[in-house]
């Protein structure tokens, strides 16, 4: 398998620049309810860097160049762990189950497990204190390429989920500008697992306008429609002839008001066309004509939640005092389908003792000429 970005940005740096030292560096980053928090920065030979903190195994910044070589942070976030803890919207590593489980309950092998309700009558992103609101243990894997692993044990009964789950997520940044996120988990009781990375991007840089001019491609021929509580109905619906069809490069602003939802915007699970268990394929791509930045998302997961920042309303203040307004960012969250435990026709998220859950997401950063 070969992942090919449109144009690696190092080719565009026409003047000498002083690049930061490669590898992994760590420093204090404040406190959370469980203790001290460190932030860890992965830097590759081209100067691209990604910073992740222990709290929530959360990506705090992603610094990449535009087409002229100017470095800028393109990830939404905050200035300290307390702000992430207080935010109504979610950032970080989502689990045990990203997205929604309808009715806040699971039935496994005839036993029903009530889960925490934190989204009307549903469980969302693992409950009130999901994995993104917990302190993880960090361990440097390698400095060449820079790689770091975060791990934690989710105890039996946490947010209602059965089984002691040992989970880890490893972030690796390569010199060809691939940022790989890999998840592992094991359990001592049958349970469900669906982990993902909830980083929100504005390729122009947060505070530099909306994502409505972005050109987006999602390699999916179907979606999983939702009910009035945003839980999938169980239907897999083809996107042919609908505004949801993003198989060809599409300017977001040309579709955002055609979807019939309020507030207008994308927030739906796409069924990836190229999905094959255990194989990584391209889920989608985002291109920002203004900055020239291009971001591909590859994964071995069957779905991707495409979200366009519809719920931001300008009241949330992020890094550098930037107010996060509607359409300030977007995300392609690789995942198993929401509410899979209640839909036998969806790919299974069941994990049993003796099995290992694994999932991979790979982000490929590049630029395009004007």
- Low-confidence segments, ≥5 residues, pLDDT <50? 1-19
Helix content: under 10%
Strand order, sheet with most strands: 11-12-13-14-29-23-22-17-20
Give, in order, the helices and strands: EEEEEHEEEEEEEEEEEEEEEEEEEEEEEE
Instruction: Please write the CATH class name.
Output: Mainly Beta
Annotated CATH architecture: Distorted Sandwich
Structural class: mainly beta
Mean pLDDT: 94
For this structure, the quaternary state is: single chain
The name CATH uses for the topology is Beta-galactosidase, Chain A, domain 5
Q: What percentage of the residues does DSSP assign to strands (E)?
A: 35-45%
Quickly count the helices.
1
Large-scale geometry = globular
Integer-rounded radius of gyration = 19 Å
Total DSSP E strands = 29
What does this structure look like?
With 370 residues, the chain is mainly beta. The chain has a single domain (9-367), classed as Beta-galactosidase, Chain A, domain 5 (Distorted Sandwich). Helices cover 2% and strands 40% of the residues. It has one helix spanning 81-86, and strands at 23-32, 35-43, 49-53, 58-65, 71-73, 93-94, 100-101, 105-108, 111-114, 123-124, 137-143, 146-154, 165-173, 178-187, 191-192, 196-197, 215-218, 220-223, 237-238, 250-251, 267-272, 281-287, 293-299, 303-307, 316-317, 323-324, 331-335, 350-351, 357-367. A hairpin with a 4-residue loop joins strand 3 and strand 4 (58-65). The radius of gyration is 19 Å and the shape is globular. The two termini are 29 Å apart.
């Amino acid at each position: 398998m070969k992942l090919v970005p449109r144009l690696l940005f190092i080719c565009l740096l026409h003047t000498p620049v002083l690049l930061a030292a490669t590898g992994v560096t760590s420093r204090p980053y404040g406190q959370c309810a469980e203790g001290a928090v460190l932030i860890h920065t992965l830097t590759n030979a081209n100067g691209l860097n990604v910073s992740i903190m222990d709290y929530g195994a959360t990506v705090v910044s992603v610094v990449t160049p535009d087409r002229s070589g100017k470095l800028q942070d393109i990830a939404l976030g905050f200035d300290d762990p307390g702000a992430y803890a207080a935010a109504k919207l979610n950032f970080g590593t989502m689990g045990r189950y990203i997205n929604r489980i309808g009715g806040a309950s699971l039935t496994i092998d005839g036993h029903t497990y009530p889960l925490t309700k934190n989204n009307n009558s549903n469980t969302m992103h693992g409950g009130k204190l999901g994995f993104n609101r917990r302190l993880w243990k960090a361990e440097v894997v390698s400095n060449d390429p820079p790689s770091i692993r975060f791990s934690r044990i989710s105890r039996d009964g946490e947010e209602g989920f059965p089984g002691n789950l040992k989970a880890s997520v490893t972030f690796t940044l390569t010199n060809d500008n691939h940022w790989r996120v890999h998840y592992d988990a094991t359990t001592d009781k049958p349970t469900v697992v669906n982990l993902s990375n909830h980083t929100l991007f504005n390729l122009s840089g947060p505070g530099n306008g909306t994502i409505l001019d972005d050109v987006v491609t999602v390699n999916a021929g179907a979606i999983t429609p939702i009910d009035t509580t945003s839980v999938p109905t169980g239907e897999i619906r083809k996107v042919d002839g609908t505004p949801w069809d993003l198989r060809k490069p599409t300017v977001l602003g040309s579709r955002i008001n055609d979807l019939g939802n309020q507030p207008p915007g994308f927030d739906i699970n796409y069924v990836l066309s190229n999905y094959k268990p255990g194989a990584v394929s391209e889920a989608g791509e985002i291109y920002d004509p203004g900055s020239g930045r291009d971001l591909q998302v590859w994964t071995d997961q069957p779905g991707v939640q495409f979200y366009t920042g519809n719920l931001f309303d300008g009241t949330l203040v992020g890094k550098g005092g930037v107010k996060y307004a509607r359409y300030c960012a977007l995300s392609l969250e690789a995942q198993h389908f929401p509410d899979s435990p209640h839909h036998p026709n969806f790919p299974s998220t069941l994990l049993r003792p003796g099995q290992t859950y694994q999932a991979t997401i790979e982000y490929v950063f590049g630029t395009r000429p004007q």
